[in-house]
Design brief:
The protein is an alpha/beta fold and 272 residues long. It is built from eleven helices and eight strands. Bound molecules: nicotinamide-adenine-dinucleotide. The site of nicotinamide-adenine-dinucleotide has 24 residues, from helix 1 and helix 5.
């Protein structure tokens, strides 16, 4: 990868996918973005356009770079076409193990044999996602954070069966995108969620015990950890430690569909 900009396919044009496509194109990569839902592609391009305009406005991007970056990104509805001649495939589809396994089986057939395969899963086992591949060693985790354009950290997740320099290539690619990669062994919650969930759940227990208001707990933490309960339940089941047990207040909110920003209500109320 030295010196030249890798060609990148991003699969899944949602919250994470459009951000990854944007940072890769800004870093000089040719990027193809694809999605099973056709309408997601123009929406992602609109969001990328907004990021470009924001970048220019904030002086992060020279005005004449705008058109060049935009030109490096294309939307391709067909998965096979999207991955056909790329060096790196980054998957950012929904968090579903069976779907990711099925997707990578197809990607493995359609992408060039030397292409690095990366999953942006935030909680699933990379080893399990790779398990069905003919060459599981091609796949690593590349866990970006939301919003991708702002967040510096990328967890490169290894599962012990990587062949050759897969993890090093992922580290190098993350650096090329201006990110700070860390290498983490495939284990539930990787490094960041395993720590972040404990903080988030403890903040909820503090709220439950009337220690402080949600706003003040957030201020005290300085960071807005707000992981969905699914991760807490999963970590509790897999790590079996009491600190991961979802508190009652969280279970009730999830039961009521109060899922935070995306549902407009959670520990706060959001309006558009
Ligand atoms: N949102 C976050 O804060 C965040 C942070 C880090 C990692 N992640 C991970 O990134 C991944 C994507 O999350 P998101 O928040 O961007 O989701 P999202 O729902 O915003 O986007 C997912 C996109 O994938 C598409 N998709 C679903 N199945 C597909 C398939 N089989 N083939 C192609 N496209 C398909 C959907 O149409 C959708 O546009 C998940 O694995 C998630 O765990 C999310």
């Amino acid at each position: 990868m030295n010196g030249f900009s890798p060609r990148v396919a991003v699969i899944g044009a949602g919250t994470m996918g459009h951000g990854i496509a944007y940072v890769a194109a800004v870093a000089g990569c040719e990027v193809r973005i694809t999605d099973a839902r056709r309408a997601a592609l123009p929406q992602a391009l609109d969001k990328i356009e907004a990021l470009l305009l924001g970048g220019v406005k904030r002086g992060k991007l020279a005005a004449d770079e705008h058109a060049a970056v935009r030109k490096r990104i294309s939307a391709e509805p067909q998965l096979r076409e999207a991955v056909a001649d790329v060096d790196i495939v980054v998957e950012a589809i929904v968090e579903d193990l069976a779907l990711k396994q099925r997707l990578f089986a197809e990607v493995e057939r359609a992408a060039p044999p030397g292409a690095l395969l990366a999953s942006n899963t935030s909680s699933l086992s990379i080893g399990q996602i790779a398990a069905g591949l003919t060459e599981p060693g091609r796949l690593v985790g590349m866990h970006f954070f939301n919003p991708v354009v702002v967040m510096k950290l990328v967890e490169v997740v290894t599962h012990g069966r990587e062949s050759g320099p897969a993890a090093e290539r992922a580290v190098e690619f993350a650096r090329r995108l201006g990110k700070e990669p860390i290498v983490v062994r495939d284990s539930p919650g990787f490094a960041s969620s395993r720590l972040g969930v404990v903080l988030g759940l403890e903040a909820m227990r503090m709220l439950e015990q009337d220690v402080a208001s949600a706003e003040d707990i957030d201020k005290a933490m300085e960071l807005g950890y707000n992981h969905p309960m699914a991760i807490a339940d999963y970590l509790h089941a897999t790590l079996g430690k009491p600190q991961y047990e979802p508190p009652k207040i969280l279970r009730e909110k999830v039961k009521k569909g109060e899922l935070g920003k995306k549902s407009g209500k959670g520990f706060y109320t959001w309006s558009d």
